[in-house]
Amino acid sequence: MPLVDIELIEGVFDDDQKQRMIRDVTEAMVGVEGEAMRGVTWVRVQEIASGEWAIGGKPMTAEAVKAAQSEPA
Question: According to a count of CB atoms within 10 Å of the terminal CB, is the N or C end of the chain lower?
Answer without folding.
Answer: C
